[in-house]
């Protein structure tokens, strides 16, 4: 009887150990590799700089989180593997666990939460329009019957289609494969306006041949929260990610990163400066970290 009880106790301990060895942290501990989602042109969040190195405000979060993983797992070495993602592939590659963590310009919403989990929010945006200053477009209703470009597979695409149907604007929606193609479409005149998250539009103006020709217009349509994507039902890894982001916010490190990428010249496109102040919403987020989606 004593031997049976001892065996049962041992089985319980082993079962607990096995349960702990699940999820992303267990995968990383076993392989010594952490796979991060990379983007080519999500400036200034996650992009290739002029030296063909991955960089960006959100990429810095990925690397800080990787450092935290290495410390928590007490790994002597952690190999970082980068996998290039697009707006069309990013959710699926995180959901099927090909990618451990993706931090870029990805919106946390209830629909995506059916497939993946999201970290604490690290940026708040609103959908607006980028147009030439002489376009005559100042409001969303000015788009009636015109060509408008939006990046495929984004929350912006879904919102634009919804607005177009509800308001009977008759917009001809052009889909771009990524942020670069989106801006090129409006720059070459194939569309009169580009719809994207406002901070992305300001980064497009900063890298335009003549920034003085462009402006961001239209009242923001629905606030959106950017978060890092990770696999669903992985509370231990999510806690590590959330705690890392919250600590960066409360220590002032996140604000320093903001100044580096949004208020200083960054090494991309020969030197780019977005020069946008921190919004009141962002300052409040830094004081009160959370993972809440707006939709």
Automatic annotation (TrEMBL):
The UniProt record lists the keyword Metal-binding: no
CDD domains, alphabetized: PBP2_GltI_DEBP (cd13688)
Endpoints of the signal sequence: 1-19
Protein keywords: Signal, Transport
Keyword Ribosomal protein belongs to the record: no
Residue ranges of domain Solute-binding protein family 3/N-terminal in the record: 33-265
Superkingdom assignment: Bacteria
SMART domains registered for this protein in UniProt: PBPb
Gene Ontology biological process: amino acid transport
GO cellular component term, pick one: extracellular region
Alphabetized InterPro entries for the sequence: Bact_solute-bind_prot3 (IPR051455), Solute-binding_3/MltF_N (IPR001638)
Entry's family note: Belongs to the bacterial solute-binding protein 3 family.
The protein's name in its UniProt record: Glutamate/aspartate import solute-binding protein
Species for this entry: Ralstonia mannitolilytica
